[in-house]
Amino acid sequence: MKFTPSLLIIFNLTSLLVLTFQPFPSLALVPCRTTCGNIPINYPFGVDDGCGAPQFRHMFNCTNDLFFTTPSGIYKVQSINYLKQTMVVYDPAMSTCSILQPHHDLVLTDIQSVIIPPSPDTIFVLLNCSIDSPVLNHYKNLCFNFSGHSCEELYASCNAFRVFHLLTNSSPPCCCTGYDTVKFMTMNILDCTHYTSVINTDDLKGVGPLDWTYGIKLSYSVPDTGCERCRRSGGACGFDTETEMMVCMCSSSTNATRECGKNKF
């Protein structure tokens, strides 16, 4: 059969239309990052808006490393234990056994104080306090020892805090206390110049300050929204950015109410 110019034009147009409307392979790409640096990002957390649980919206950002944002600053996330529902963060402005920093308050939003507060085994140690400090007078019951340790040990064991002893030839008043104390009273009200925080205090019996782990462990909670059902179906749990209602994200363009393959919008 001999093709005329008209037939060739029709054939080429037909071929072009067939190619144009060929379906592309479906991409099972969920638009939520699953890692930031070396930290895995799983529900209820998310660094992309619409990912994770809406209660934690805008609390995290990823710039090479994962950071937790509060009104008092940005804290680097050191680890997340999804089984125990805990997260360890580090305050770069906090004093430790090896470095002395100006005092710095930890301030959480109201919702953060409810859904991701410091864990009970995180102890805040107030150092170089005035003799008029509220925790040494009206609220001295807020101070306690933990695992056989007292705050005075830090003056004797840590180079960073030994300076207070050298300046006064004595150990200034100090206080080991819980999060509720620093939640309701600033460092200025507490009348202490420095603080440090120690985690995993239940395991520190017989362990000296040089080997303590300094940081802040946060314990989070989140209501059961059926997220496991979504994950088993191959999706990722997220929420509608306008209504903040839960959605199961099945691909870069497909969402479902509870699980992939069902109840699609």
Automatic annotation (TrEMBL):
Q: Which domain of life is it from?
A: Eukaryota
- Give the reactions, separated by semicolons, that this protein catalyses: L-threonyl-[protein] + ATP = O-phospho-L-threonyl-[protein] + ADP + H(+); L-seryl-[protein] + ATP = O-phospho-L-seryl-[protein] + ADP + H(+)
Q: Which residues form the Wall-associated receptor kinase C-terminal domain?
A: 215-252
**Signal peptide (from-to):** 1-28
User: Where in the cell does this protein reside?
Assistant: Membrane
Task: Tell me how this protein sits in the membrane.
Answer: Single-pass membrane protein
Q: Which organism is it from?
A: Tripterygium wilfordii
Q: Which UniProt key words apply to this protein? A: Glycoprotein, Signal
Q: Which GO terms describe its molecular function?
A: polysaccharide binding; protein serine/threonine kinase activity
Q: What is its EC number?
A: 2.7.11.1
Q: What is this protein called?
A: non-specific serine/threonine protein kinase
Gene Ontology cellular-component terms listed: membrane
Supply the Pfam families for this chain: GUB_WAK_bind, WAK_assoc
Q: Which InterPro entries match?
A: WAK_assoc_C, WAK_GUB
- Domain Wall-associated receptor kinase galacturonan-binding, first and last residues per copy: 32-91
